[in-house]
């Protein structure tokens, strides 16, 4: 596929995007806000030179936190602009940085919308987080001589095969990037196989993310509302996983166990509540929790945003969602940073190296199905010696690969004028 046909396809799909946004807005009203930005129209622009980072959603925004802080310190004369594709990413940016940064939506990747965005903000440099390859955006930066780096870059085998199906388009896009800062040697090799030239390995920013100062105290306060009972956290679960987890819990023999389920996407909070009702489980919502939980409450539905570190602080151990089904898994490093043993499913291609390292360090266990999840929970919650050993290993693992922020800032510094 050439970029011409790629753009033609986008223009064919463009008339349907308002319907898509309105449809999503039925479940998450924030999708109906700032619609003009999706097409490259913006109301205001910074008066300072702009350093622009694209953090598509929640996970990328959180991962970028140490990098954003470092850039604000390193370049005080510049204004940081965060672009997002989802309301949850935008909200996370507001929670993390307030008015110290600007936030807008990145437009759809049509040539005219990209031109409006780049001409409006005129960034001194652009940084794409993880695996955001937008080919007209890359070309637009190339034409305008705007350095554009792909940082904290990862590329699973699955994604590499997908990009390989449009090999010419991918090769040109990767070669037009100024540089790529890959997370691992495996990621770097896959980018090079697809045609990238300027690739270095800088590590994973997620290892540099620090828990908020209030996380431990907030976790202690939340745990006090649970009472004296073991607490299992199912973190960042995806559609279909909650049923599998509940199946595993049904076979468990742990008296008084409280399970906390935190769905990955806020629009699914009500769906999970319906599932719990259908299962006949007594549950409460975190958003309504003001008094100690009654002893017969079996599940707490974590229907709040921006509190994942608090949930980790309040639990005994955590299952990391997105991994029981072939969805690639979510970030396990945050749980380990709070000293919590982690359980992960068989599908962790989004965090391939981190998952293997966590297991190798003794910080995590892989479970292949709900039956193995039951067995692992039973073992860990019944064996205090094993639990303590994994808890210490989790903290050691989280501290084992820090430093990506400094390496990426050093790379950025060679291109900021």
Throw out a few tags for this protein:
alpha/beta, Rossmann fold, seven-stranded parallel sheet, single chain, globular, 15% strand, 19 helices, 417 residues
Give the total of domains.
2
CATH class of the largest domain: Alpha Beta
* Low-pLDDT residue intervals, each spanning 5 or more residues: none
Beta strands, count: 14
Radius of gyration (CA) equals 22 Å
Detail the topology: elements first, then pairings:
Layout: H1 3-13, H2 17-27, E1 50-54, H3 58-63, H4 65-74, E2 79-84, H5 87-97, E3 102-105, H6 111-121, E4 125-129, H7 135-143, E5 148-153, H8 157-164, H9 167-176, E6 179-182, H10 185-193, E7 199-201, H11 215-226, E8 231-237, H12 241-250, E9 258-263, H13 269-278, E10 283-285, E11 299-301, H14 308-314, E12 317-320, H15 333-337, E13 342-344, H16 352-360, E14 364-366, H17 370-382, H18 384-398, H19 404-413
Parallel strand pairs: 1-2, 1-4, 2-3, 4-5, 5-6, 6-7, 8-9, 8-12, 9-11, 10-11, 12-13, 13-14
Helix pairs in contact: 4-19, 6-7, 7-9, 11-14, 12-17
Written overview of the protein:
It is a single chain. The protein has 417 residues and is α/β, with parallel strands linked by helices. It has two domains: 3-204 and 402-413, Rossmann fold (3-Layer(aba) Sandwich), CATH 3.40.50; 215-398, Rossmann fold (3-Layer(aba) Sandwich). It has 19 helices and 14 strands. The chain is globular. The two termini are 35 Å apart.
């Amino acid at each position: 596929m050439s970029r011409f046909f790629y753009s033609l396809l986008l223009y064919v799909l463009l008339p349907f995007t308002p319907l898509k946004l309105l449809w999503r807005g039925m479940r998450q009203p924030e999708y109906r806000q700032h619609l003009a930005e999706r097409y490259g129209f913006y109301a205001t622009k910074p008066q300072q030179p702009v350093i622009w980072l694209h953090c598509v959603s929640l996970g990328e925004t959180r991962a970028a936190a140490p990098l954003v802080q470092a850039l604000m310190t390193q370049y005080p004369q510049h204004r940081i602009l965060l672009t997002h594709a989802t309301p949850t990413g935008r909200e996370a940016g507001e929670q993390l940085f307030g008015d110290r940064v600007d936030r807008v939506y990145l437009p759809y990747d049509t040539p005219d919308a990209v031109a409006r965005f780049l001409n409006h903000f005129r960034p001194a440099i652009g940084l794409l987080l993880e695996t955001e390859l937008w080919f007209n955006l890359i070309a637009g930066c190339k034409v305008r001589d705007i350095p554009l780096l792909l940082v904290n870059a990862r590329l699973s085998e699955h994604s590499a095969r997908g990009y390989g199906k449009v090999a010419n388009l991918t090769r040109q896009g990767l070669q037009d990037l100024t540089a790529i800062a890959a997370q691992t040697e495996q990621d770097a090799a896959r980018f090079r196989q697809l045609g990238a030239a300027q690739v270095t390995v800088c590590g994973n920013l997620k290892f540099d993310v620090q828990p908020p100062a209030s996380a431990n105290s907030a976790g202690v306060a939340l745990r006090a509302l649970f009472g004296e009972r073991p607490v299992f956290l199912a973190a960042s679960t995806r559609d279909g996983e909650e049923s599998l987890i509940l199946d595993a819990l049904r076979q468990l023999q742990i008296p008084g166990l409280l399970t906390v389920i935190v769905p990955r996407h806020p629009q699914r909070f009500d769906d999970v509540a319906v599932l719990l009702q259908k299962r006949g489980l007594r549950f409460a919502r975190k958003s309504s929790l003001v008094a100690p939980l009654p002893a017969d409450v079996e599940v707490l539905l974590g229907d709040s945003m921006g509190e994942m570190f608090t949930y980790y602080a309040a639990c005994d151990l955590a299952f990391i969602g997105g991994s029981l089904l072939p969805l690639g898994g979510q970030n396990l490093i945050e749980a380990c940073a709070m000293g919590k043993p982690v359980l992960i499913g068989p599908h962790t291609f989004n965090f391939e190296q981190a998952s293997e390292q966590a297991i190798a360090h003794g910080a995590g266990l892989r479970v292949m199905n709900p039956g193995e999840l039951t067995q692992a929970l039973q073992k860990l919650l019944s064996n205090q010696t094993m639990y303590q050993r994994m808890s210490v290993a989790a903290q050691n693992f989280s501290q084992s690969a820090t430093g990506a922020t400094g390496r990426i800032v050093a790379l950025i510094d060679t291109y900021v004028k």
